[in-house]
Amino acid sequence: MADQYNPKFGLPPGTAIDGAPRIKAIYLHPIKSCGPVEVDRALLTKSGFMYDRCFAFATKSVNGDDTAASKWRFISQRKNPVMSRIKTELWLPHKYSNLHDPLVQSGGCVVMTFEDPDLPSWTSRVETFFHTGNLFAPSQLSFIVPLDVTATQAKLKTFGIHSRDAKGLDIGGIPSIAAALSKLKKFLGIPADQILTLFKCTPDTLTRTDKNLAPLKHIGSPALHGYTDQQPVNINSLSSVHAVSALLPTENQPLNALRFRANIWIINAPAYEEETWKRYRILPKSNGTQPRASVAPALSVVCRTSRCTMPNVNPETGSFDADTPPPGRKRGKAQPSTTLVQYRTVETGNKAALGYLGMHCVPEDGSLKSAEEQGAGLYIEVGDEIEVLERGTHLYGSTGDDY
C-alpha cells in the first residue's frame, strides 16, 4: 500500500475495466483499534481471518459507586485516537522454530510497541540513537502478547463492545503484559480511577452475528465473529477511496485508505462497484509458493459498512483531522466524516451512519469444508482475482435480526 496514492488506482465510477478486480493488499488487526499488520497471505476461517481482532483493550472504573462504569468496556480510537500509534507485529512459528521455546508453544505472539510516555533517561537516549540515529527521537517500549492463552493462565470475563456483551480471557495479569500496562495507560491518557486490561478471544467466545444476515442457503451456518463490531470480513476498493479523496477539501487530501481498516483491498475495479456485489469468490492467481487448498474461497456480501468517527483519526499522528475553519470559527469540520455524510449517505438503513464506504462479508461454509477435506488451509493471497457470482442491491439492516 506504499503506492496507494498513485492515480492509476483511482478508477471513476462506470470506468470500463480490462480484466478482473485483484487483491492489492491484505491487512490484519490483531488488537482491536490498534495498528494493523500487512501480510502477503491470510488464512480464512469461519469467523474471518486468523489473528484478526483477536484481542481488545478494555477499562473499568475503580469507583464502586458507579455500577455502569465498574463494568469492563472496550476502548477504541473513537475516544482514544492515539491507539492508532500502537504498532503491532505478528510473529508466528515456522519449520525451523525451536519447539521448546515457550512462545512457539504458545502459537507465536503479537509484539506491541508504543512511545514511552515518560521522559527518557540518558541510557535510553543512547539506545534510541543507536537504533534511529536521532538522539532526541522518542524512546519506544515493547511488550509481548502470546497468541494462545489457556483458562489456567487467565480468567474468562465479560466486557462490553458497543451494545453487546463479549467474553474473553483477561490476560492483563500475565507478567509480560502487566509490566507494560501502567506505561500504556499513561500513553493513552486513561484516568487514574480506571483500570486497563487486555482481553483474548477464544473459539468458545465467538459471537453469532445477529445483524445484516447472509442467507443460510449460501453460507451454510450462521456467521460468527470475534471482536469485530459485527461481521467477520471487510473488503474495500482503492478506487472508492480515491473517489472520496477527490471530494475532500484540498488540505485533507490525499486520503489514507488505511483509515477504513479493511481486511482486503482491491484494485482494477471502478469506484463503488463493490457495492453491487452480493456474492464473490477469490480465484487463486498469485505466484505464492506456500501450500494452500485448491479451492476458490466464496464469500457473501451482506451490507455496506456504515462509518463512524474512526476514519477521522490520522493513523500517523493519532489525532482527529478537520478541515480549515472559515473566518470567525476556531474549529473546522471533522474530515472525512463531513464529506462522507454529504456525498456517501447513499442509503437510509442506519440512521447513525456517517456515510458508507466498504462492504461487510461472510465466508461460505462450502469452500471452508472443501479445504478441510483436502487437509489444507483456505488461504487468500495478494494478487488473487475476484470473480463476482451475484449482484444486487443492499440496504443496511434489511435482512432482519434472526436467521
TrEMBL record:
It comes from Penicillium flavigenum. It holds the Pfam family MOSC_N. Residues 193-389 form the MOSC domain. One of its GO terms (molecular function) is molybdenum ion binding. PROSITE patterns: MOSC. SUPFAM superfamilies: MOSC N-terminal domain-like, PK beta-barrel domain-like. This is MOSC domain-containing protein. It comes from the Eukaryota. Residues 314-337 are annotated as: Disordered. PANTHER family: MOLYBDOPTERIN COFACTOR SULFURASE MOSC (PTHR14237), MOSC DOMAIN PROTEIN (AFU_ORTHOLOGUE AFUA_7G05900) (PTHR14237:SF23).
